[in-house]
Amino acid sequence: MDIKKEIGLRLRAAREKARFSQTSAAKKIGIHNSTLGKYELGEREADNETLLKLANLYGVKVQWVLTGEEQNKEKIVDKIIEHVGEPGDKQREKFTNLFLEELNNLPEEIQKSLYTLIRYIQKK
């Protein structure tokens, strides 16, 4: 099955489980209900900000919407710490520099989306 259709099915399932109509969910996040319908049918791809809004509205994680799998936060943090080291550690400095370099190599549109996502998370 096409990945957009899989994402659409998960969006619809989450919306229905959260007991929203397409119209009410779309209105709450500021999009037209036909746009949400196209996301759910896999005919259109939602941008990162819209996916985040929908996931928050439905009470699910964006990762689940995208992959169908949940990720344990502790495992992610453990993996990062494992590679980062302690403050002042040369390995941590190296990791930070590589991470920033990779971010810098991303297309500007993705960098802006990541920045928006980070700012949104910081406000919570």
Label this structure with key terms.
about 120 residues; mainly alpha; 434 Repressor (Amino-terminal Domain); 2 domains; elongated
Description:
The protein is mostly helical. The chain folds into two domains: 3-67, lambda repressor-like DNA-binding domains (434 Repressor (Amino-terminal Domain), Orthogonal Bundle), CATH 1.10.260.40; 73-123. It has eight helices and no strands. The chain has helices spanning 3-17, 22-29, 33-41, 48-58, 62-67, 73-84, 90-105, 108-123. It is elongated.
Number of strands: 0
By oligomeric state, this entry counts as single chain
Indicate the low-confidence ranges by residue numbers.
Answer: none
Order of helices and strands: HHHHHHHH
pLDDT averaged residue by residue: 84
Alpha carbon gyration radius: 17 Å
CATH level-3 fold name of the largest domain: 434 Repressor (Amino-terminal Domain)
- The total number of structural domains is 2
CATH architecture heading of the largest domain: Orthogonal Bundle
Q: What is the highest CATH level, the class of the largest domain?
A: Mainly Alpha
Tally of helical segments: 8
What is the approximate shape? elongated
Distance between the termini: 35 Å
Question: Structural class, judged by helices and strands?
Answer: mainly alpha
Q: Name the CATH homologous superfamily of the largest domain.
A: lambda repressor-like DNA-binding domains
Provide the helix percentage: over 70%
Strand percentage, roughly? under 5%
